[in-house]
Amino acid sequence: MNIENSNAQDVTEIFRLYKIASDYQKSKQKVVVWPEFERELIETEISQNRQWKLSIDGKTACIWATTFTDEQIWEEKNEDKALYIHRIATNPDFRGENFVARIVHWAKEYARDQGKDYVRLDTLGENLKLIEHYKNAGFDFLGMFDLKDTTGLPDHYHGVPACLFEIKL
């Protein structure tokens, strides 16, 4: 298992995994579905070393993005020194491997190395199974919140509550 930054050659695979995740969300019918993300967003994350992949035997098993600021979602808590994780998507060939736990382990180390005090993530809507999954991975569930300003956020952030999670380091 290897965790490293994604690169420009990974863009097609990133979008393939996002499409698979979105199709899976649609099949669940009661969860918020990811929109089709803009290529420019992913390319920017890659160029800023904020798009990550977990590889096993040279195959991309899981992807996610990070940032050190997330003001629209975390509002006043954005002032804390935190690493924010977004858009975890797993290759279906590797489902059931509990990559969230591995990402959490990596994120704690990475956040400490960057001088951060928290690892945070969010999800949307009342996806109770996903809430439990993140809690089981070590996150504290802070609750569901209506975002004050969703201007400029991807479409799936509009009109649904945000579920906020954090790990204090």
Automatic annotation (TrEMBL):
Keyword Transferase recorded: yes
Keywords: Transferase
Domain N-acetyltransferase: 1-169
Keyword field contains Aminoacyl-tRNA synthetase: no
GO molecular function: acyltransferase activity, transferring groups other than amino-acyl groups
PROSITE patterns: GNAT (PS51186)
Stated name of the protein: Acetyltransferase (GNAT) family protein
Organism: Pedobacter nutrimenti
